[in-house]
Amino acid sequence: MESAKQQPPTRQESGRVDEGVLNPAPSKQPSNSRSDSVLPTHHNHGLRQGLFRINTAGESGRSGIHPVHLLKVCFMSTCTLSMLVNVLWPFVPAAITIYFARPDLHVWIFTLNYIAMVPSANLLGFAGGELAKKLPKVFGVLLETTLTSVVEIVLFMVLIHNDEGGNLIPVIQAAILGSILANLLLCLGLCFFFGGIGREHQSFHEAVSEVGTGLLLVAGFGLLIPSAFNAALSGGSSNAEITPEELMHSTLVISRSTSIVLLVAFVMYLFYNLHSHHSIFDEVLEFDEHRDEDREKERNRAKLTLTECFLAIVISLVCVCLSAVFLVQEIESVVHERHVSDSFMGLILVPLVEKAAEHLTAIDEAWDNQINFALFHCLGPSIQTAFLNAPLAVLVGWGLGKDMDLNFEIFMIVLVVLSILVVGNFLRDGKSNYLEGGLCVLIYVIIAVSTWYYPAVTREGSAH
Protein backbone atom coordinates (compact mmCIF):
# COMPACT_ATOMS: atom_id res chain seq x y z
CA MET A 1 0.00 0.00 0.00
CA GLU A 2 2.78 2.42 0.84
CA SER A 3 4.57 1.81 -2.41
CA ALA A 4 1.34 2.34 -4.33
CA LYS A 5 0.85 5.63 -2.60
CA GLN A 6 4.35 6.84 -3.31
CA GLN A 7 4.23 6.08 -7.04
CA PRO A 8 1.59 7.91 -9.10
CA PRO A 9 -0.46 5.69 -11.40
CA THR A 10 0.24 5.62 -15.10
CA ARG A 11 -2.14 7.35 -17.50
CA GLN A 12 -3.75 4.02 -18.42
CA GLU A 13 -4.14 2.96 -14.79
CA SER A 14 -5.32 6.29 -13.44
CA GLY A 15 -8.98 5.43 -13.81
CA ARG A 16 -8.66 2.77 -11.13
CA VAL A 17 -8.30 4.64 -7.86
CA ASP A 18 -6.90 2.84 -4.86
CA GLU A 19 -9.81 3.12 -2.48
CA GLY A 20 -7.54 2.10 0.35
CA VAL A 21 -5.71 5.38 0.05
CA LEU A 22 -8.80 7.55 0.15
CA ASN A 23 -10.58 5.35 2.69
CA PRO A 24 -7.84 3.69 4.70
CA ALA A 25 -8.65 0.62 6.75
CA PRO A 26 -9.06 1.25 10.47
CA SER A 27 -5.85 0.89 12.40
CA LYS A 28 -5.57 -1.02 15.64
CA GLN A 29 -6.66 1.79 17.89
CA PRO A 30 -9.58 2.34 20.22
CA SER A 31 -12.91 2.58 18.46
CA ASN A 32 -13.33 6.23 19.40
CA SER A 33 -10.15 7.32 17.62
CA ARG A 34 -10.28 9.47 14.51
CA SER A 35 -8.54 6.82 12.42
CA ASP A 36 -11.67 4.64 12.58
CA SER A 37 -13.57 7.13 10.45
CA VAL A 38 -14.85 5.87 7.12
CA LEU A 39 -13.70 9.13 5.57
CA PRO A 40 -9.98 9.86 5.39
CA THR A 41 -8.27 11.77 8.15
CA HIS A 42 -5.26 13.99 7.80
CA HIS A 43 -1.95 13.41 9.49
CA ASN A 44 0.99 15.80 9.43
CA HIS A 45 3.82 13.71 8.04
CA GLY A 46 6.73 15.51 9.59
CA LEU A 47 5.67 18.97 8.46
CA ARG A 48 6.07 21.98 10.66
CA GLN A 49 2.88 23.16 12.29
CA GLY A 50 1.88 26.69 11.42
CA LEU A 51 0.63 28.81 8.56
CA PHE A 52 3.33 27.98 6.02
CA ARG A 53 4.44 24.53 4.93
CA ILE A 54 8.08 23.60 4.43
CA ASN A 55 9.77 20.79 2.51
CA THR A 56 6.88 20.75 0.06
CA ALA A 57 6.49 21.20 -3.68
CA GLY A 58 6.05 24.92 -3.04
CA GLU A 59 9.49 25.48 -1.51
CA SER A 60 11.70 27.63 -3.76
CA GLY A 61 14.99 27.23 -1.91
CA ARG A 62 15.55 30.98 -2.19
CA SER A 63 14.52 34.13 -0.36
CA GLY A 64 13.91 37.74 -1.26
CA ILE A 65 13.35 39.05 -4.79
CA HIS A 66 15.39 38.17 -7.88
CA PRO A 67 13.91 40.15 -10.81
CA VAL A 68 15.33 38.04 -13.65
CA HIS A 69 14.40 34.80 -11.94
CA LEU A 70 10.94 36.18 -11.16
CA LEU A 71 10.28 37.05 -14.81
CA LYS A 72 11.57 33.71 -16.02
CA VAL A 73 9.50 31.65 -13.58
CA CYS A 74 6.34 33.66 -14.26
CA PHE A 75 6.76 33.36 -18.02
CA MET A 76 7.40 29.61 -17.96
CA SER A 77 4.36 29.17 -15.67
CA THR A 78 3.14 25.66 -14.82
CA CYS A 79 2.04 24.33 -18.20
CA THR A 80 2.49 24.96 -21.91
CA LEU A 81 -0.97 26.47 -22.37
CA SER A 82 -0.43 28.93 -19.54
CA MET A 83 2.98 29.83 -20.95
CA LEU A 84 1.47 30.54 -24.37
CA VAL A 85 -1.03 32.90 -22.74
CA ASN A 86 1.89 34.97 -21.46
CA VAL A 87 2.68 35.86 -25.07
CA LEU A 88 -0.32 38.21 -24.84
CA TRP A 89 1.40 40.49 -22.31
CA PRO A 90 2.19 43.20 -24.95
CA PHE A 91 -1.57 43.80 -25.11
CA VAL A 92 -1.52 45.08 -21.52
CA PRO A 93 0.50 48.29 -22.12
CA ALA A 94 -1.19 48.68 -25.52
CA ALA A 95 -4.64 48.58 -23.89
CA ILE A 96 -3.66 51.15 -21.27
CA THR A 97 -2.07 53.43 -23.86
CA ILE A 98 -5.00 53.44 -26.28
CA TYR A 99 -7.43 54.21 -23.46
CA PHE A 100 -5.67 57.51 -22.73
CA ALA A 101 -4.45 58.29 -26.26
CA ARG A 102 -7.64 57.57 -28.23
CA PRO A 103 -10.66 57.55 -25.88
CA ASP A 104 -12.96 57.79 -28.90
CA LEU A 105 -12.07 54.29 -30.16
CA HIS A 106 -14.55 52.46 -27.95
CA VAL A 107 -14.49 49.11 -29.72
CA TRP A 108 -10.69 49.02 -29.86
CA ILE A 109 -10.42 49.93 -26.18
CA PHE A 110 -12.88 47.18 -25.28
CA THR A 111 -11.15 44.59 -27.46
CA LEU A 112 -7.60 45.32 -26.31
CA ASN A 113 -8.54 45.39 -22.63
CA TYR A 114 -10.57 42.22 -23.07
CA ILE A 115 -7.46 40.48 -24.40
CA ALA A 116 -5.20 42.17 -21.83
CA MET A 117 -7.21 40.72 -18.96
CA VAL A 118 -6.26 37.18 -19.99
CA PRO A 119 -2.48 37.35 -19.29
CA SER A 120 -3.07 39.53 -16.23
CA ALA A 121 -5.54 37.04 -14.80
CA ASN A 122 -3.19 34.22 -15.78
CA LEU A 123 -0.38 35.79 -13.74
CA LEU A 124 -2.76 36.28 -10.83
CA GLY A 125 -3.75 32.63 -11.00
CA PHE A 126 -0.14 31.47 -11.27
CA ALA A 127 1.09 33.63 -8.38
CA GLY A 128 -1.90 32.55 -6.31
CA GLY A 129 -1.10 28.93 -7.07
CA GLU A 130 2.53 29.42 -6.06
CA LEU A 131 1.40 30.96 -2.79
CA ALA A 132 -1.15 28.18 -2.26
CA LYS A 133 1.61 25.55 -2.43
CA LYS A 134 3.28 27.18 0.56
CA LEU A 135 0.09 27.04 2.65
CA PRO A 136 -1.98 24.21 4.13
CA LYS A 137 -3.68 22.44 1.24
CA VAL A 138 -7.34 23.36 1.69
CA PHE A 139 -6.60 26.90 2.84
CA GLY A 140 -4.24 27.34 -0.09
CA VAL A 141 -6.78 26.18 -2.67
CA LEU A 142 -9.51 28.39 -1.19
CA LEU A 143 -7.16 31.38 -1.11
CA GLU A 144 -6.17 30.74 -4.72
CA THR A 145 -9.84 30.59 -5.71
CA THR A 146 -10.54 33.81 -3.83
CA LEU A 147 -7.68 35.63 -5.56
CA THR A 148 -8.97 34.68 -8.99
CA SER A 149 -12.45 35.76 -7.89
CA VAL A 150 -11.04 39.23 -7.27
CA VAL A 151 -11.27 39.81 -11.03
CA GLU A 152 -14.99 39.12 -10.90
CA ILE A 153 -15.54 41.24 -7.80
CA VAL A 154 -13.70 44.18 -9.37
CA LEU A 155 -15.84 43.91 -12.51
CA PHE A 156 -19.05 43.82 -10.47
CA MET A 157 -18.03 46.78 -8.33
CA VAL A 158 -17.03 48.91 -11.33
CA LEU A 159 -20.25 48.03 -13.14
CA ILE A 160 -22.34 48.99 -10.11
CA HIS A 161 -20.43 52.23 -9.66
CA ASN A 162 -20.89 53.18 -13.32
CA ASP A 163 -24.55 52.19 -13.40
CA GLU A 164 -26.93 55.05 -14.12
CA GLY A 165 -30.64 54.42 -13.94
CA GLY A 166 -30.21 50.66 -13.98
CA ASN A 167 -28.64 50.48 -17.45
CA LEU A 168 -25.85 48.12 -16.34
CA ILE A 169 -27.83 46.02 -13.84
CA PRO A 170 -28.81 43.44 -16.50
CA VAL A 171 -25.14 43.00 -17.43
CA ILE A 172 -24.19 42.38 -13.79
CA GLN A 173 -27.02 39.90 -13.31
CA ALA A 174 -26.12 38.05 -16.50
CA ALA A 175 -22.44 38.02 -15.48
CA ILE A 176 -23.30 36.43 -12.13
CA LEU A 177 -25.16 33.57 -13.78
CA GLY A 178 -22.68 33.39 -16.66
CA SER A 179 -19.81 32.91 -14.23
CA ILE A 180 -21.56 29.92 -12.68
CA LEU A 181 -22.37 28.48 -16.11
CA ALA A 182 -18.81 28.93 -17.37
CA ASN A 183 -17.39 27.02 -14.41
CA LEU A 184 -19.98 24.27 -14.29
CA LEU A 185 -20.34 23.54 -18.00
CA LEU A 186 -17.32 24.91 -19.86
CA CYS A 187 -14.53 24.54 -17.31
CA LEU A 188 -15.74 21.30 -15.75
CA GLY A 189 -16.60 19.92 -19.17
CA LEU A 190 -13.11 20.65 -20.50
CA CYS A 191 -11.60 19.09 -17.38
CA PHE A 192 -13.61 15.90 -17.84
CA PHE A 193 -12.85 15.84 -21.57
CA PHE A 194 -9.08 16.36 -21.46
CA GLY A 195 -8.72 14.38 -18.25
CA GLY A 196 -10.61 11.49 -19.84
CA ILE A 197 -8.46 11.29 -22.97
CA GLY A 198 -6.46 8.06 -22.80
CA ARG A 199 -8.22 6.96 -19.63
CA GLU A 200 -11.22 4.75 -19.06
CA HIS A 201 -12.40 7.19 -16.43
CA GLN A 202 -11.20 9.41 -13.61
CA SER A 203 -12.38 8.91 -10.04
CA PHE A 204 -12.88 11.67 -7.53
CA HIS A 205 -13.81 11.63 -3.87
CA GLU A 206 -17.43 11.98 -2.81
CA ALA A 207 -16.49 14.49 -0.11
CA VAL A 208 -15.57 16.98 -2.84
CA SER A 209 -18.42 16.31 -5.26
CA GLU A 210 -21.25 15.94 -2.74
CA VAL A 211 -20.42 19.07 -0.78
CA GLY A 212 -19.98 21.05 -3.99
CA THR A 213 -23.18 19.92 -5.68
CA GLY A 214 -25.17 20.30 -2.46
CA LEU A 215 -24.03 23.88 -2.04
CA LEU A 216 -24.75 24.66 -5.69
CA LEU A 217 -28.29 23.32 -5.36
CA VAL A 218 -28.83 25.60 -2.37
CA ALA A 219 -27.32 28.48 -4.33
CA GLY A 220 -29.60 27.81 -7.29
CA PHE A 221 -32.59 27.75 -4.97
CA GLY A 222 -31.55 31.00 -3.30
CA LEU A 223 -30.92 32.81 -6.58
CA LEU A 224 -34.18 31.54 -8.06
CA ILE A 225 -36.51 32.73 -5.28
CA PRO A 226 -36.49 36.51 -6.03
CA SER A 227 -36.97 35.85 -9.76
CA ALA A 228 -39.80 33.39 -9.17
CA PHE A 229 -41.47 35.79 -6.74
CA ASN A 230 -41.34 38.65 -9.23
CA ALA A 231 -42.45 36.51 -12.18
CA ALA A 232 -45.39 35.06 -10.26
CA LEU A 233 -46.79 38.48 -9.37
CA SER A 234 -45.97 40.53 -12.46
CA GLY A 235 -47.65 40.85 -15.83
CA GLY A 236 -51.13 40.13 -14.57
CA SER A 237 -50.31 36.46 -14.06
CA SER A 238 -51.61 36.60 -10.50
CA ASN A 239 -54.79 37.86 -8.87
CA ALA A 240 -52.77 39.46 -6.09
CA GLU A 241 -53.38 43.18 -5.68
CA ILE A 242 -49.93 44.71 -5.85
CA THR A 243 -48.65 47.71 -7.75
CA PRO A 244 -45.48 47.57 -9.87
CA GLU A 245 -43.74 49.85 -7.37
CA GLU A 246 -44.68 47.61 -4.45
CA LEU A 247 -43.56 44.54 -6.38
CA MET A 248 -40.23 46.15 -7.22
CA HIS A 249 -39.69 47.13 -3.59
CA SER A 250 -40.65 43.68 -2.29
CA THR A 251 -38.34 41.97 -4.79
CA LEU A 252 -35.52 44.27 -3.74
CA VAL A 253 -36.07 43.49 -0.05
CA ILE A 254 -36.19 39.75 -0.76
CA SER A 255 -32.97 40.01 -2.79
CA ARG A 256 -31.15 41.83 -0.02
CA SER A 257 -32.40 39.41 2.61
CA THR A 258 -31.40 36.46 0.45
CA SER A 259 -27.94 37.98 -0.03
CA ILE A 260 -27.40 38.20 3.72
CA VAL A 261 -28.49 34.58 4.15
CA LEU A 262 -26.17 33.45 1.35
CA LEU A 263 -23.26 35.24 3.02
CA VAL A 264 -24.02 33.36 6.24
CA ALA A 265 -24.02 30.12 4.26
CA PHE A 266 -20.63 31.07 2.78
CA VAL A 267 -19.19 31.54 6.27
CA MET A 268 -20.51 28.10 7.21
CA TYR A 269 -18.90 26.67 4.07
CA LEU A 270 -15.54 28.18 5.02
CA PHE A 271 -15.80 26.85 8.58
CA TYR A 272 -16.66 23.39 7.25
CA ASN A 273 -13.70 23.34 4.85
CA LEU A 274 -11.09 25.05 6.98
CA HIS A 275 -11.90 23.82 10.48
CA SER A 276 -14.38 21.07 11.23
CA HIS A 277 -13.74 18.84 8.18
CA HIS A 278 -10.45 20.11 6.81
CA SER A 279 -8.72 16.77 7.51
CA ILE A 280 -10.94 15.02 4.96
CA PHE A 281 -10.10 17.45 2.18
CA ASP A 282 -6.43 17.59 3.18
CA GLU A 283 -6.15 13.84 2.74
CA VAL A 284 -8.00 13.88 -0.58
CA LEU A 285 -5.77 16.63 -1.97
CA GLU A 286 -2.66 14.92 -0.62
CA PHE A 287 -3.63 11.80 -2.53
CA ASP A 288 -4.06 13.89 -5.67
CA GLU A 289 -0.54 15.24 -5.22
CA HIS A 290 0.78 11.67 -5.12
CA ARG A 291 -0.96 10.66 -8.34
CA ASP A 292 0.09 13.79 -10.24
CA GLU A 293 1.67 12.50 -13.43
CA ASP A 294 3.93 15.56 -13.59
CA ARG A 295 4.90 15.29 -9.95
CA GLU A 296 8.65 15.00 -10.52
CA LYS A 297 8.62 17.75 -13.12
CA GLU A 298 6.64 19.98 -10.76
CA ARG A 299 8.98 19.22 -7.88
CA ASN A 300 12.04 20.19 -9.93
CA ARG A 301 10.45 23.28 -11.48
CA ALA A 302 11.84 26.65 -10.40
CA LYS A 303 9.43 28.40 -8.04
CA LEU A 304 8.75 31.83 -6.64
CA THR A 305 9.79 32.90 -3.18
CA LEU A 306 7.13 34.08 -0.75
CA THR A 307 8.06 37.71 -1.38
CA GLU A 308 7.96 37.20 -5.15
CA CYS A 309 4.51 35.62 -4.83
CA PHE A 310 3.15 38.72 -3.12
CA LEU A 311 4.87 41.02 -5.63
CA ALA A 312 3.45 39.10 -8.60
CA ILE A 313 -0.02 39.14 -7.03
CA VAL A 314 0.12 42.92 -6.54
CA ILE A 315 1.33 43.54 -10.11
CA SER A 316 -1.31 41.28 -11.61
CA LEU A 317 -4.05 42.80 -9.46
CA VAL A 318 -3.13 46.31 -10.62
CA CYS A 319 -3.16 45.22 -14.28
CA VAL A 320 -6.43 43.32 -13.87
CA CYS A 321 -8.13 46.22 -12.12
CA LEU A 322 -7.02 48.72 -14.77
CA SER A 323 -8.20 46.48 -17.60
CA ALA A 324 -11.48 45.81 -15.78
CA VAL A 325 -12.17 49.52 -15.29
CA PHE A 326 -11.36 50.37 -18.91
CA LEU A 327 -13.33 47.38 -20.18
CA VAL A 328 -16.46 48.13 -18.19
CA GLN A 329 -16.54 51.76 -19.28
CA GLU A 330 -16.83 50.65 -22.91
CA ILE A 331 -19.49 47.97 -22.46
CA GLU A 332 -22.40 50.31 -23.07
CA SER A 333 -20.81 51.67 -26.24
CA VAL A 334 -20.12 48.19 -27.60
CA VAL A 335 -23.65 47.05 -26.78
CA HIS A 336 -25.17 49.95 -28.72
CA GLU A 337 -22.64 50.33 -31.55
CA ARG A 338 -22.11 46.63 -32.31
CA HIS A 339 -25.60 45.51 -31.29
CA VAL A 340 -24.30 42.95 -28.80
CA SER A 341 -27.07 42.09 -26.36
CA ASP A 342 -26.72 42.67 -22.63
CA SER A 343 -27.42 38.99 -22.11
CA PHE A 344 -24.60 37.77 -24.36
CA MET A 345 -22.19 40.35 -22.97
CA GLY A 346 -22.86 39.34 -19.37
CA LEU A 347 -23.63 35.65 -19.71
CA ILE A 348 -20.85 34.69 -22.14
CA LEU A 349 -18.22 37.35 -22.93
CA VAL A 350 -17.49 38.75 -19.45
CA PRO A 351 -17.28 35.37 -17.61
CA LEU A 352 -14.95 33.91 -20.24
CA VAL A 353 -12.27 36.51 -19.64
CA GLU A 354 -12.68 36.83 -15.88
CA LYS A 355 -12.39 33.06 -15.37
CA ALA A 356 -9.58 32.42 -17.85
CA ALA A 357 -6.89 31.76 -15.23
CA GLU A 358 -9.10 29.42 -13.21
CA HIS A 359 -10.00 27.43 -16.31
CA LEU A 360 -6.38 27.00 -17.41
CA THR A 361 -5.37 25.81 -13.94
CA ALA A 362 -8.22 23.32 -13.66
CA ILE A 363 -7.70 21.86 -17.14
CA ASP A 364 -3.98 21.37 -16.48
CA GLU A 365 -4.76 19.60 -13.20
CA ALA A 366 -7.29 17.29 -14.84
CA TRP A 367 -4.80 16.46 -17.60
CA ASP A 368 -2.24 15.52 -14.93
CA ASN A 369 -4.84 13.29 -13.22
CA GLN A 370 -5.40 15.64 -10.27
CA ILE A 371 -9.15 15.54 -10.74
CA ASN A 372 -9.97 16.45 -7.12
CA PHE A 373 -7.90 19.62 -7.43
CA ALA A 374 -9.67 20.34 -10.72
CA LEU A 375 -13.06 19.92 -9.05
CA PHE A 376 -12.03 22.36 -6.34
CA HIS A 377 -11.15 24.90 -9.04
CA CYS A 378 -14.42 24.32 -10.93
CA LEU A 379 -16.95 24.06 -8.11
CA GLY A 380 -15.17 26.46 -5.74
CA PRO A 381 -15.45 29.58 -7.95
CA SER A 382 -19.10 28.80 -8.68
CA ILE A 383 -19.78 28.55 -4.96
CA GLN A 384 -17.94 31.81 -4.32
CA THR A 385 -19.85 33.58 -7.08
CA ALA A 386 -23.22 32.44 -5.74
CA PHE A 387 -22.54 32.78 -2.01
CA LEU A 388 -20.10 35.71 -1.91
CA ASN A 389 -19.72 37.76 -5.09
CA ALA A 390 -23.41 38.01 -5.99
CA PRO A 391 -24.52 38.95 -2.45
CA LEU A 392 -21.69 41.49 -2.27
CA ALA A 393 -22.90 43.07 -5.50
CA VAL A 394 -26.42 43.38 -4.09
CA LEU A 395 -25.28 44.78 -0.74
CA VAL A 396 -22.77 47.21 -2.26
CA GLY A 397 -25.48 48.39 -4.64
CA TRP A 398 -27.73 48.87 -1.61
CA GLY A 399 -25.05 50.99 0.04
CA LEU A 400 -24.62 53.08 -3.12
CA GLY A 401 -28.35 53.57 -3.54
CA LYS A 402 -28.53 51.34 -6.64
CA ASP A 403 -31.43 48.95 -7.18
CA MET A 404 -29.23 45.90 -7.70
CA ASP A 405 -31.31 42.80 -7.04
CA LEU A 406 -31.41 39.07 -7.74
CA ASN A 407 -34.41 39.32 -10.05
CA PHE A 408 -32.81 37.52 -12.99
CA GLU A 409 -34.38 36.83 -16.34
CA ILE A 410 -36.32 33.58 -15.98
CA PHE A 411 -34.63 32.26 -19.12
CA MET A 412 -31.18 32.66 -17.54
CA ILE A 413 -31.90 31.42 -14.04
CA VAL A 414 -33.60 28.33 -15.46
CA LEU A 415 -30.46 27.62 -17.47
CA VAL A 416 -28.36 27.79 -14.31
CA VAL A 417 -30.64 25.54 -12.28
CA LEU A 418 -30.80 22.96 -15.08
CA SER A 419 -27.01 23.10 -15.43
CA ILE A 420 -26.60 22.44 -11.71
CA LEU A 421 -28.88 19.41 -12.01
CA VAL A 422 -27.01 18.08 -15.06
CA VAL A 423 -23.59 18.48 -13.46
CA GLY A 424 -24.84 17.00 -10.19
CA ASN A 425 -26.03 13.94 -12.07
CA PHE A 426 -22.62 13.52 -13.73
CA LEU A 427 -20.86 13.82 -10.36
CA ARG A 428 -23.16 11.39 -8.59
CA ASP A 429 -21.21 8.21 -9.42
CA GLY A 430 -17.82 9.65 -8.45
CA LYS A 431 -16.40 9.06 -11.94
CA SER A 432 -15.93 11.15 -15.05
CA ASN A 433 -14.99 10.52 -18.67
CA TYR A 434 -14.50 12.45 -21.89
CA LEU A 435 -18.10 11.81 -23.00
CA GLU A 436 -19.56 13.60 -19.99
CA GLY A 437 -17.10 16.43 -20.49
CA GLY A 438 -17.94 16.79 -24.15
CA LEU A 439 -21.66 16.87 -23.39
CA CYS A 440 -21.17 19.67 -20.83
CA VAL A 441 -19.25 21.75 -23.37
CA LEU A 442 -21.91 21.16 -26.03
CA ILE A 443 -24.61 22.33 -23.63
CA TYR A 444 -22.59 25.49 -23.04
CA VAL A 445 -22.33 26.06 -26.80
CA ILE A 446 -26.11 25.71 -27.14
CA ILE A 447 -26.60 28.25 -24.34
CA ALA A 448 -24.15 30.66 -26.00
CA VAL A 449 -25.98 30.47 -29.34
CA SER A 450 -29.36 30.95 -27.66
CA THR A 451 -28.10 33.89 -25.65
CA TRP A 452 -26.77 35.62 -28.77
CA TYR A 453 -30.33 35.84 -30.08
CA TYR A 454 -31.91 36.66 -26.72
CA PRO A 455 -33.07 40.30 -26.89
CA ALA A 456 -32.86 42.87 -24.16
CA VAL A 457 -36.06 42.66 -22.13
CA THR A 458 -37.49 45.43 -19.98
CA ARG A 459 -39.14 43.80 -16.99
CA GLU A 460 -42.27 45.14 -15.41
CA GLY A 461 -41.82 46.40 -11.93
CA SER A 462 -38.22 47.29 -12.58
CA ALA A 463 -36.56 50.59 -12.19
CA HIS A 464 -34.61 50.11 -15.37
UniProtKB/TrEMBL annotation:
It is found in: Endomembrane system; Vacuole membrane. The chain crosses the membrane at residues 81-101, 107-126, 138-160, 172-194, 215-233, 253-272, 309-328, 408-427, 434-454. This is Vacuolar calcium ion transporter. Keywords: Antiport, Calcium, Calcium transport, Ion transport, Membrane, Transmembrane, Transmembrane helix, Transport, Vacuole. It is a multi-pass membrane protein. Residues 1-40 are annotated as: Disordered. One of its GO terms (cellular component) is endomembrane system. Has a role in promoting intracellular calcium ion sequestration via the exchange of calcium ions for hydrogen ions across the vacuolar membrane. Involved also in manganese ion homeostasis via its uptake into the vacuole. Belongs to the Ca(2+):cation antiporter (CaCA) (TC 2.A.19) family. The keyword DNA damage does not apply. One of its GO terms (molecular function) is calcium:proton antiporter activity. GO terms for biological process: intracellular calcium ion homeostasis. Its main location: membrane. Residues 1-12, 26-38 have a biased composition (Polar residues). Residues 106-273, 310-450 form the Sodium/calcium exchanger membrane region domain.
